[in-house]
């Protein structure tokens, strides 16, 4: 057997770091010693050899002569720092420019990393599947499942490692001191949900299996970190304490970690941060656990490690088929839908995020071009210095290295300032809930982002540093020294102008993108939503579940009394209540029409009509400004003992009766799961359509019922008032407190705010891109200014001669401005071409505006032209202000 | 008149004298390590030897490859005449600096050992 060989990596390192002519002897010596040591202890020998590799590194660094790396670098850095200190203006401008580019890039990258790279913050997040129901015959639609469905899944579908169910609830937490109760966002979850996601309490424990049971010994509750902090003062003695939720006692058994809000986007898990977690089978949701037709249960499962998504889906499909056969009254062509949680969470925001990332990347490129421009300008001032140093024996490589180090130092300064910008920018994004990312406030600048930021800075530093450095060191020294320091324009000037044209072009692309989004927003804002939000305030009241199911008439009475009290308040024009606000997409209920109309809609066998369902109180349509088109609206006569009546919207009438057909008098057969047989409701009125899903949404067929005839647990008060309706809130609170102290008044908000919320994503994206685009245009303006100023300085002599020969100031000025306009024109043409090529990227985010929108394009191009003109104004003035004599003497 | 040797160079030249015919990287390094008690990196020895060779203080000769060295050759070093002179100068300087203070130096060495 041959002798042992040294560790390969260490050997490679040493060989790399050894001068070629000596390598054989060094390595030979090392291997000889290694062989001696290996004879005694092979392991120790390898350790020794590796240590030699480390020493090779330190030796190479410390070596004072020959190819000295570090000391020379330190020396260069010191020199570079000194030379930078001599031009603070350049340093400040370059640092700010880079900080803007790098900071913005890091900010958006943090979002990319958080949302798209890391994905859901759960264990085995890629195996999580949200299970819903849909049609199996290709019709669109997705809805929740029922609890009996869930139990069948547990029995019949074996491919899930875990399958958990949850449902959102909103109980009121009673206060200990007689103050108003607090509305909570609660989730009823099966005991396995949190463990499946890998969320562990920081205090106490999760739910025990026996607690998630109808006969649970106690009702357990797990607090979110934030509720624990805000409501219970982070008291560690909270475990075992009793709290009252909707008048029912619960026992706190655990507290969840900070940062887990339950809001991660998509179908997981809730739309608002969850305050409290309750065991499904022991809590509010238990009431509907046996009702097959009550499809209000969310399911999330983890596909087993040893099975595949397709296998599990096939099992679920088989179950769907069985259930279709078993319950033909409830189900027809209904089957499972699997939504990959990870994808679902990002699909609505992915485009916006990448668009933003593209925008900041352009901004960064523009920033780099700016700094490159500044460096080239600086290089021409330093030609003599460089030439002198070359003449005195400084090698070109050494000079190059020093210049590159200079730009790397600038990049480092920019990156450091960029951290601040990224940090502040993220705070702004979170405060504005920008990009419609549910978990945006948990995005942080951590080590990964910092590494990215400094890598970007380093690459940028090389990018904008190497070119100018090559320029600066490219001229033979004798030439420069002979030219008496008069810098040479030539190629360098072309490059600078090219950079400026590029900057202008990229800014134009950004400006057009932002402009198109802005125009879309404007278009959307101009749409009539079908109601009048001005002067209307909304607030929600929710009755305890037990209370409602026991006493429906009382539920109706509470709402009516509260509405009546609101009506009496000073300044109130009208008040009413509705189940669904006109801004909420709401939900559908199924019904039959009698006699069956000649509907333009074909129904499959066993299928029912679908319409948005909302009980309202008399005066609702008048309060929110929904116009009556035919028949009448509700009155106090439409009470629980009155004739059963319904108001439909125009779309409903058109859809089920045909355009122009009067539906008044037709009857709907309408049942609720809690109300036995289907009572008949007579259509008494037709109202105008409302855009339920925001102004850029669509209308939907809708039915409105008198609340007295279709009572629900949760109603929204709507109050129209003169003056600022928000001023009514304290009075409304006081009235409700007087009426029933256990009921909190939830989310008092102007109706306009609900409407604005649906525009929020569009608005924040437009504003953000606008900020990027304006920053880009500012940088481009600085670039134009720099180049024009440079041009004027370079040509002072020429201009002096011209003026001396009789040229008027006007001619000189137009010469400068003309040069600037040529740059701007080139940039604009290039930019328009770019915008045309990239139009497809924004197209899907636009509303009512094509990517090639002449108006936007013209305005933006004119704007950028004006910016370029303004930026070259000062240099042009300076050019005309030159005294011919002094400019001729300037050499 | 040559320059005064650095401490490490001085040690290397002394090692060459001690090792006679067998002075190459490993032996020089080990000789110095044995006398000074500090561990050296082979590159440090070679860097110094290269400098000495450039000054003409040492001469080098390449030997035969051996299997133990992975088939690589040794580079043997011998003291050249200028090296001898430099070494003599340094030794004389040391001796001169020590003359008349032997008792004190002994006391210092004793107390430190």
What this model shows, in words?
- The complex is a heterodimer of chains A (891) and B (113).
- Chain A is of the alpha+beta class.
- The mean pLDDT of chain A is 85.
- In chain A, helix 1 runs parallel beside helix 3 and helix 6 (147-156) packs across helix 9.
- Helices cover 51% and strands 14% of the residues of chain A.
- Chain A has 4 domains: 8-62, no CATH class; 138-332, no CATH class; 350-526 and 758-889, no CATH class; 544-742, no CATH class.
- Chain B has 113 residues and is α+β, with helices and mostly antiparallel strands.
- Chain B contains 5 helices and 2 strands; from the N terminus they run αααββαα.
- Chain B has a two-stranded antiparallel sheet with strand order 1-2.
- In chain B, strand 1 and strand 2 (72-79) form a beta hairpin.
- In chain B, helix 1 packs across helix 2 (25-36).
- The chains are: A alpha+beta (891), B alpha+beta (113).
- Chain A binds chain B through residues 3, 5, 17-18, 22, 24-33, 35, 52, 55-56, 58-60, 63, 65, and chain B through 24-26, 29, 41-44, 46-47, 50-51, 66-70, 72-75.
Number of domains of chain A: 4
Strand content of chain B: 15-25%
Could you tell me the mean pLDDT of chain B? 86
Shape of chain A: globular
Topology:
The complex is a heterodimer of chains A (891) and B (113).
Chain A: H1 8-16, H2 23-40, H3 42-62, H4 70-85, H5 88-117, E1 128-135, H6 147-156, E2 160-169, E3 172-173, E4 182-183, E5 186-189, H7 193-197, E6 203-204, E7 220-223, H8 225-232, E8 242-245, E9 248-255, E10 276-279, E11 298-303, H9 309-326, E12 334-340, H10 341-347, H11 350-381, H12 383-391, H13 396-431, H14 447-472, H15 477-482, H16 490-525, E13 536-542, H17 545-550, H18 552-568, E14 572-578, E15 588-594, E16 609-616, H19 620-624, E17 628-631, E18 645-649, H20 650-657, E19 667-670, E20 680-687, E21 702-706, E22 714-721, H21 729-739, E23 746-750, H22 751-794, H23 796-804, H24 809-843, H25 854-881, H26 884-889
Parallel strand pairs in A: 5-10, 7-9, 16-21, 18-20
Antiparallel strand pairs in A: 1-11, 1-12, 2-5, 2-11, 3-4, 6-9, 7-10, 8-9, 13-22, 13-23, 14-22, 15-16, 15-19, 17-20, 18-21, 19-20
Helix pairs in contact in A: 1-3, 2-3, 4-13, 5-11, 5-13, 5-14, 6-9, 11-14, 11-16, 11-22, 13-14, 16-22, 16-24, 16-25, 18-21, 22-23, 22-24, 22-25, 24-25
Chain B: H1 7-19, H2 25-36, H3 42-54, E1 58-66, E2 72-79, H4 81-98, H5 102-112
